[in-house]
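Subgroup meeting minutes
Present: P.N., E.W., G.H.
Scribe: E.W.

1. P.N. recapped why we're keeping a running log of single-chain structure predictions: easier to compare across weeks, and new members can see raw inputs and outputs side by side.
2. G.H. added today's entry (194 aa).
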Amino acid sequence: MKEKKKDAKQEEEKLIVDDVSSEETASSSDAEQNDFQIAALQAKVDSAEAELASMKDQMLRDRAEIENFRKRLIRDKDEAVKYANSNLIKDLLQPLDDFTRALEAAESTKDFQKVHDGVLMVSSQLYGILERNWGLEKIDAKGKEFNPEEHEACMVVEDPSLSAETVLEDFSTGYKLHGRILRPAKVKVGKPNV
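Output recorded in log:
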């Protein structure tokens, strides 16, 4: 019986050793699997960090490009505004030269008719250039029916001979630019008796 106990005890010890050995093998296999998973996760983290760095770099480049574009637009707009009237000024140089010549002629002569004719010529040139090249129109007011969009009444008088409110006198000429009122004409209006 002692031998049976001894064999059972040896058998039990052998089973314990086998269990420990199999646990060590399993734990070794688990450790290898954990190491593999850690390495895979580390590779994913490294890849994500590299992608993040690339995206940050691209974002900074895009932001700098947008800022440069914005500055270029502001500079182009400022330049366009600064030189927007250059064609108008070029058109007005000839009448200004003629006006200067008319003033010089007025100083050298006492012939006021020539001075008057020179000033009239310059005025006609100026209006002609502004009408042809720039879309300026005079608002003809005298004798027309009063229109509050085109005329600004500075004075109103009653006139029984009129059938409607009519412009009797033009104090200051009004102008339209491409059909839009630039400045209304200041006028004296005749109002019929009601």
